[in-house]
Amino acid sequence: MANDIPTPEELAKIDHKPPRKGWMDTPTEFRPGTWSYPGKASALKVLDLPNPREWQPTDEDWKLPENWKEIIIDGLKERLDKFRSLKIFMDICVRCGACADKCHFFLGSGDPKNMPVLRAELLRSIYKNEFTKAGKLLGKMAGARELTKDVIKEWFSYFYQCSECRRCSVFCPYGIDTAEITILARELLTLIGCNINWILEPAANCFMTGNHLGLKPHTFKENIEYMVDDIEEYTGVKIEPTFNRKGAEVLFITPSGDVFADPGIYTLMGYLMLFEHIGLDYTWSTYASEGGNFGLFTSHEVMKRLNAKMYAEAKRLGVKWILGGECGHMWRVVNQYMDTMNGPADFLEGPVSPITGTRFDNAASTKMVHITEFTADLIKNNRLKLDPSRNDHLKVTFHDSCNPARAMGLLEEPRYIIKNVCNNFYEMPENTIKEQTFCCGGGAGLNNEEFMEMRLRGGFPRANAVDYVHQKHGVNMLSCICAIDRVTLPPLMEYWVPEVGVCGVHELVANALIMEGENEREYNLRGELIGETEDNEDV
Amino acid sequence: MDLKSLLVKKKSGIVKKWFHKIADTYDPETSKFLKQKKNRFANPVGSTISMEMEALFDELFDQAEQDKVLACLDNIIKIRAVQDFTPSEAIQFIFSLKQVIRQELKKEIQDEQISEEIIKFESKIDDIALLAFDIYMSCREKVYRIKENEYRQNRFMVLAGDDIDDIKGGSPAEKPALGTNKPKSLT
Amino acid sequence: MNIAFSILTVVVIGLIPWIGTTAVNLQYLFGIIIPYAAVIIFLLGVVYRIVKWGKSPTPFRIPTTCGQQKTLPWIKQNRIENPSNVVGVIIRMALEILAFRSLFRTTRAELKEGPRLAYGGFPWLWLAALVFHYAFLTVVIRHLRFFLDPVPFFIAWLARLDGLLEVGLPVYMLSGFALFAAVSYLFIRRVVVPQLRYISLAADYFPLFLILCIAGTGILMRYFFKVDVISVRELAVSLAGFQPKLPDNGIGGVSYLFYMHLFYVSVLVAYFPFSKLMHSGGIFLSPTRNLANTNRAVRHINPWNYPVKVHTYAEYEDDFREQMKEAQIPVERD
Predict the structure, then answer these.
(1) Are residues A212 and A155 in the same domain?
(2) Do B33 and C121 touch (CB under 8 A)?
């Protein structure tokens, strides 16, 4: 009897994957949820970027400039001459495979072209073909291939599927940094107008209005004033922040996402309360109202153009030094590029905390201090009145953002703060935090909704580690020091671990702060009754 | 021997083959990787799927508790629902259990010892498949809801940039307000 | 395909000296001219490559930080994984180059599921790579015995250490076998692990086969078809002293095996500068490893830094002056 019945598999008639060919022969498919909308012509025009036009990656014809090939080859040559990193990384990979299973996008999607080595090979194959003897002589045998329009499509797909998180670079025996390769490959793509709107539009906004959201000066100010109202409502303390004030001691710059989006706004309310609490002489700027820099995801030049505002504004306002808020890629730019690109900032003074007198020697040249360095110093010197029990309903874990972890090494400062403002703190497993931290799935300008499936896949390794501490310790709050995280982690949690909320570190600080003249503090910054809130925060 | 004891006896072989079937729905390079490692953090997809399959299998021949079955299915399908699979591919693994069991118990089935029982058992698997449809759909709906929320929030940001005063025609209270005052559309 | 191509190439390379020294009497070519040519290509090639790399500047300081930065004095810095001075960088580079630190990282603190056997955790790649490189180094140094007269004491020591087990006669040199085994592992790994097979090129298999052949012919010569060591030494010393001379009595034994060995080595040496084997030089220049994370403390100079078009504050105020005034945000000009 059993033999007469068709097997379930026959019934299901599932298409098995066809026999696989080599990666060079596998064409790129643009499947929904795995690519981002292309840059709008208007955004490209604002930034004077080449080849503004209307197009879609799913179109057959991408309307590339006639001499696109020449542009790419010349562009590659120029960058090889300008960046030793690129030349070395193109030459020395031995394809040992140590990086292969370190990429969150590979782990989550299973697409072998998401292995870092192969992502780099997409560019390396063209490099070999154009610039090495072996490639010219041996072609495919040496891993070289012709530059065609299909290669451009493949680049567009996979270099906009890399979040430049650098996790692979930690494991590479030669330190080959896929982020660096992706940055330069995106520069090349930008030369022929192949870039994504979620990066280009914020960059254009930032260029014209000072921040990614395109908040005009009055709107920026009003938004912060709403938060001031909310703070007064919940704590009874009235705060009066200043904007574009000359002669302030410190200029404070943070990502504009926190001026707008939930739950980032609570972090920003945290800053306002902290500065009030310690009586810091500081100002906001509407001109330099963006900490983040989507130029980093476009090209070194656009990065420099956007970053220039920070020093320019600090100079105009005559402040002594700059304090920077919680942000991931902003700190990559500040730590690795700002001083080199737009320095020297000799019109500023070496940063000294006016409250504790601590000199921040590690920022002696850039003159920009990270808020968690600043706050950790305050706590260490007992300058904050804290009641950590107000965060007792939270079981907190901490997500290291890729950039502060691997492009800076800011690991202990936020942990020190959290441990002082919360009583329940649990680490995720060691191979998922600190320098081995997993990306949120939406870094490097990929946190757009059309890319959602890919983000959920790529974020799975992170969510999986959160789920582990959630199951084991009942963790219900995922804290982070990055504005993009605060936008990408909530949907990630909603899908994978809905019981866990997301917050910034300074939201936790503010809830624990005992402010002068405060009320009973029945409510936390989210307007929830303290002590009554259980898990699932506002995600 | 009855079907249950047979399944208990051959559990590890069946679960392994079943897991290999699902792993083989990925690219060959990936499939081998998924099968290789058992570390939950170095290989989250492979280890989650294999763990949950084992748990699901246990539920199948014990008195299946609906909640537990749902939880297992949810953890597997959640992953497959956001990967590059069609709906049928995403939940096909349920049916492949039938195939695996028939292969493993070929002899016993031919001996007609357990054909009655196995038909019952297979209809149980079919029930599970129905549940899987529901879960798959709820996962997809969740993805769309998340997308929609984000779209709305992003749209709001764009409006804010384009001078929200004109568009909303309004007083500060109607702006992208914060805290308890925030408009419903943002949450 | 890539594998077949590589094997074919290696076989052809092996046949050339065999024909050359048995069918045709080209011992002088294979014993003297080609080795010299190979060494010249090697030296020029390596210099060319390093100069070429060196010509491109390092515009930005981009170390991959793998530990706590130098910050407040009471927070413990990880001086090696996130160095803030030259000493730290040197130790970091030394660990990377001598101990393959990054490859070892894979193992750290792996959580195992339940009672299951813990496998996949040990960094076999790290071990194989380490064995391979150190065995190769030992073999190379050991070979200096042939070229140097008198043999420096440390080379003699090393050779004695290498043959420590003193099994059989002639004494088995461990390094040769270790090299053979490690290369075999690296090859099998490439073939068996599908991800690796997917990314592997002919350029990855070819050097493995080449080294396999070098080790193989070497082992054959030493233990099975013995060549006349005195004559080989005579040739080697004459090469090293730039007074090349083929030994009068030939090499003895199966002499073409010797010429094959020498030719494989020559090909490897000449191929070296144009291949991925240059990673040995490149690692020293890798900007994510050889720079200190002092970005905010000491300004790094980009030699090609150029002015860019920015949207100045004055332009910005022109765009929004009225709204700013209305919102009581200070302006520069009324």
Answers:
(1) no
(2) no
Average pLDDT, chain A: 92
Residues of chain A contacting residue C64, judged by C-beta atoms under 8 Å apart: 166, 169-170, 175, 177, 406-407
Closest-CA residue of B relative to A497 is B75
Stretch A164-176: mean pLDDT = 95
CA dihedral A413, A418, A423, A426 (to 10 degrees): -80
Query: Within an 8 Å CB–CB cutoff, is residue B166 touching chain A?
Result: no
What's the rounded Cα separation, in Å, for the pair C119 and A290? 47
Q: Is A360 inside any structural domain?
A: yes
Mean of pLDDT values over B170-176: 36
Mean local confidence (pLDDT), A235-257: 96
| Closest residue to A215, CB basis, from B43, B161, B177 | B161
Tell me, what's the ipTM?
0.91
* Confidence tier at C277 by pLDDT (50, 70, 90): very high
Q: Do A225 and A102 belong together in one domain?
A: no
How many domains does chain A contain in total? Answer: 2
Please name which of A372, A375, A417 lies closest in space to residue A396, comparing C-alpha atoms: A417
Q: Is A244 in CB contact (< 8 Å) with chain C?
A: yes
Among A163, A195, A227, which residue terminates a domain?
A195
Domain range for C125 is 2-110+117-326
| Tens digits of residue pLDDT in C210-265 | 999 999 999 888 888 878 888 888 889 889 889 888 887 766 666 788 899 999 99
- Among candidate residues A168, A195, A222, the one where a domain is terminated: A195
Residue C120 clears pLDDT 60, i.e. is over it: no
Query: Are both A78 and A177 inside the same structural domain?
Result: yes
| Nearest alpha carbon to residue A462 among A502, A482, A492, A418 | A492
Question: What is the reported pLDDT for A249?
Answer: 97
Q: What angle do CA A253, A255, A256 make, to 5 degrees?
A: 105
- pTM for the model stands at 0.90
What pLDDT sits at residue C145?
A: 84
Q: Residue A140: is its pLDDT beyond 60?
A: yes
**Looking at the domain assignment, is residue A296 inside a domain?**
yes
DSSP string, A3-18: GGSPPHHHHHT--PPP
pLDDT band at residue A71 using 50, 70 and 90 as cut-offs: very high
Q: What is the mean pLDDT of residues B150-154?
A: 80
HSE value, Cβ hemisphere, 13 Å, CA-based, for A357: 0
Asked whether the predicted pLDDT for residue B187 surpasses 80, the reply is no
Q: Are residues A482 and A349 in the same domain?
A: yes
Cα–Cα distance for residue pair B139/B48, rounded to 1 Å: 17
Beta bridge pairs of residue A359 = A352
Would C141 be classed as within a structural domain? Answer: yes
CB pair distance less than 8 Å for B42 and C195: no
Pairs of residues, one from chain A and one from chain C, whose beta carbons lie less than 8 Å apart: 292
Q: Are residues A481 and A458 in the same domain?
A: yes
Chains contacting chain C through 3 or more C-beta pairs under 8 A = A, B
Residue C25 near chain B (CB below 8 Å): no
Please tell me the distance from the alpha carbon of residue A360 to that of residue A119, in angstroms, as a whole number. 39
Instruction: Inspect the interface and report whether the beta carbons of B41 and A461 lie closer than 8 Å.
Output: yes
Q: How far, in Å, CA of A207 to CA of A204, rounded? A: 5
- In chain A, the percentage of residues whose pLDDT exceeds 90 is 84
**Three-state DSSP class for residue B76:** helix
Q: Which of A79, A96, A177, A209 to mutate to test the interface with C (most CBs of C within 10 A)?
A: A96
Instruction: Domain count for chain C, please give it.
Output: 1
Q: By C-alpha distance, which of A294, A50, A48, A304 is closest to C307?
A: A304
Amino acid at A52: P
CA distance A65 to chain C (A): 24
Mean pLDDT of A69-80: 97
Mutate to test the interface with A, among C41, C53, C62, C211 (most CBs of A within 10 A): C62
> Is the Cβ of A126 closer than 8 Å to some Cβ of chain C?
no
Q: Where are the domains of chain B?
A: 3-136, 150-186
- Of A193-197, A511-515, C29-33, the poorest mean pLDDT is in C29-33
Is the same domain home to A159 and A229?
Answer: no
